[in-house]
Amino acid sequence: MGRRVSIGRMPDPAQAHGAWVYLIVSVLAGSLTAVRDGFLPALLAGIGFAGVFLVASSLALGRSRGWKRFLVGLAVATLAPGLALLLGADPSFFVYGLIALAPAAIAAWFAERGGFQSPRALAFGVAALVVAAPSSACAGGAHTGMSLLLLALLTPFFVWRAMVVRRRLTTRKGWSRSRIRATGIREAVLAVVWTSSVVLLAHVVF
């Protein structure tokens, strides 16, 4: 049996593996939605989103511990979108980045008061990450309807699954690292399956 772990507040958002799953799957969703128009610019725009996430998460570590991550995130957040623009990305994808600031700010506000795993902070944080999907799709030249469809179908699903996992972790006892890992793998599979279905639907509808 694996070593038991305690589930408490998570001061560092980048240590939440689920956050990376939702972010990576969202970026891939947007890129695959734009695969016929501009897969690479879409992917680079999504990578820029990851850079912003690194910058934001570095603030939770403080200046002494987070400055390296801040610099790496800033470089990624600057260079990846810049290269995307050079490759012909639709600059409107920056609008989605601005939209993501609202749920991200709200998540930070709730996290400061109740921790990053508090229900409201978690919900708004996941919602902010999912905006990477329409942003990437837009950068790749996908139809606006595709971008909005991704946002409309991915956001509630990912928030729901994040809440399910949180409830399990906080209400059930006897969690071990191996059990948490198994749960993470299952949730990643569910995210991929659902996202693949949404991307397929987007190509069928549009």
Key structural traits:
mainly alpha, 0% strand, single chain, disordered N terminus, 206 residues
Question: What this model shows, in words?
Answer:
With 206 residues, the protein is mainly alpha-helical. It has one domain (13-205). Helices cover 80% and strands 0% of the residues. It has helices at residues 17-33, 35-58, 63-86, 93-114, 119-130, 132-139, 144-171, 177-205. The longest helix has 29 residues, at 177-205. The protein is globular.
Secondary structure layout plus pairing:
Layout: H1 17-33, H2 35-58, H3 63-86, H4 93-114, H5 119-130, H6 132-139, H7 144-171, H8 177-205
- Please report the distance between the alpha carbons of the first and last residues: 49 Å
Helix/strand/pairing category: mainly alpha
**Poorly predicted runs:** 1-10
Number of helices, counting only DSSP H or I runs of 4 residues or more: 8
Helix share bin: over 70%
Shape: globular
Radius of gyration, in Å, reads 17 Å
Order of helices and strands: HHHHHHHH
Please describe the biggest sheet, giving its number of strands, its sense, and whether it closes into a barrel: none
Task: Describe this structure in a few short sentences.
This protein has one domain. By secondary structure, it is an all-alpha fold. Helix content is 80%, strand content 0%.
